[in-house]
Amino acid sequence: MKEHLFNEYHRLIKNIHQTDSYIFNYFGQKLAPFDLSVQQYVTLRRLSEVYPNSLTAGELKEKMNDINSDMTRLTDRLVAKNLIVREIDPQNRRRVNLRLTEESHRFVETVAADFKNFESIVSHLTDEEVSTMNTLLEKIRNQSVK
């Protein structure tokens, strides 16, 4: 049975959604041996970028791609796995900082090394196709902000 698509715009939205799901599942499978979700990995990578410094939950959320992520639940799970620590900010006791430990930083670097070839999912595209796709996707996101 052929699926009914209203028009090419509908087809585009369907394709973007299916591609997002495909990529998300691909990375989820790659992260499964490390007992990490995609959101947890991205969180650890963002904290790794500032290591040995820390970020507040608000700062971390700003750096995340997933604007709908529940930062408290996400960080609770990483704290439970001993991958991040929460610390009271000495300059502002109401502020809580999130930081990788030295051991978890090494763990993140190990996972990142295993992930070096993450571009393989799009490596069959030409440079021109990648550039065009990036331009178009950014145009969609920038227009929806207005």
UniProtKB/TrEMBL annotation:
PROSITE patterns the UniProt entry points to: HTH_MARR_2 (PS50995)
Entry's Gene Ontology BP terms: response to stress
UniProt domain HTH marR-type: residue ranges: 2-142
UniProt-listed InterPro entries: HTH_MarR-typ, MarR/SlyA-like, WH-like_DNA-bd_sf, WH_DNA-bd_sf
Record GO terms (molecular function): DNA-binding transcription factor activity
One Pfam family recorded for the sequence: MarR
UniProt-listed SMART domains: HTH_MARR (SM00347)
Protein name per the record: MarR family transcriptional regulator
Record organism: Spirosoma arboris
